[in-house]
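Reopening this ticket.

The earlier resolution said the output was attached, but the attachment link was broken on my side. Pasting everything inline this time so it's all in one place.
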Amino acid sequence: MRANCSSSSACPANSSEEELPVGLEARGNLELVFTGVSAVMIGLVMFSLGCSVEIRKLWSHIRRPWGIAVGLLCQFGLMPLTAYLLVISFSLKPVQAVAVLIMGCCPGGTISNIFTFWADGDMDLSISMTTCSTVAALGMMPLCLYLYTLSWDLEQNLTVPYKNIGITLVCLTIPVAFGVYVNSRWPKQSKIILKVGAIVGGVLLLVVTVAGVVLAKGSWNSDVILLTISFIFPLIGHVTGFLLALLSQQSWQRCRTISLETGAQNIQMCVTMLQLSFTAKQLGQMLSFPLAFGLFQLLDGFLIVAAYKIYKRRLKNKYRKKNPGCAEARHKKKSTSPKETSALSEVNEEAALTPGPSGSTDLHRALTPTGQSSCAE
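Inline output:
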């Protein structure tokens, strides 16, 4: 796999000692600090999210990996194809086209796990998908890049960051494994850790957003077409991932999970691959895309979570208006025996209020587990 180096100034072999463009060296130092801080925070967040994972449910996903298979198809089927079609449709320059394609071939990022938690998604599936896509990236990244660049006249080698993939995998699996262990041994304490982790995750996203704005402050003056692609690319990933999950008859919870996982790419892995494969002068034209993609990826995630929360609240209010007696009965039952009814009421309310493809069927089943309304008891 080689990039177009027809001009003498573009090829590393034809260039003399190259100095970093103005501002790129300072931005590199800021990226180093940002990477270190975010790595620690991501480790803590993944540990806390691991506290929401149950071994039984995780094993069920491994035994029947239909949801994982759909997610991998979205990750390494839809996203690289979408990147290729965007490159062809907008007639990008060779350097910019490679950056977009690399982004499409990257595995899922850990940011999707945080959004999945906020959107009441399937955390077991989310973490399984992130882990499996990172492992699959060892072979799928070079394969996808090779297949989609066959028709391109590329001359510069693209270096797949295997070391970075391995580090990402370790930083993902070890904290999650500790979280799963804590949840199995101390379930009450794990709920507290999970709440703290949600706050830390919010702080992490805030830090990522602010740092992304600082790092990409010069990117907003770049090519408008590239910014347009960075805006619509993650959005297309979310929509197509949801539709494919829906067509494969996944539950509403899994549809949300697969949608969020599909549109969220590992930005750091894309940046690392660009830095390993291209010269400093070329990076000045390429780094703007992954940074802008990361910002729009965060924006799309926030909008999806906000839309889900608003819809769920409207559904909840509608349910309470239609069934005022159920709310009062549940409140009285909690006040008399909270320890016995807490878990059951939470499950029933979540199942009743969560919208899904089955619609009223799920609502009816949640309210009538034994064939009668739960309010009649």
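Reporter confirms the inline version is readable. The radius of gyration is 23 Å. Residues 288-322 form the longest helix (35 residues).
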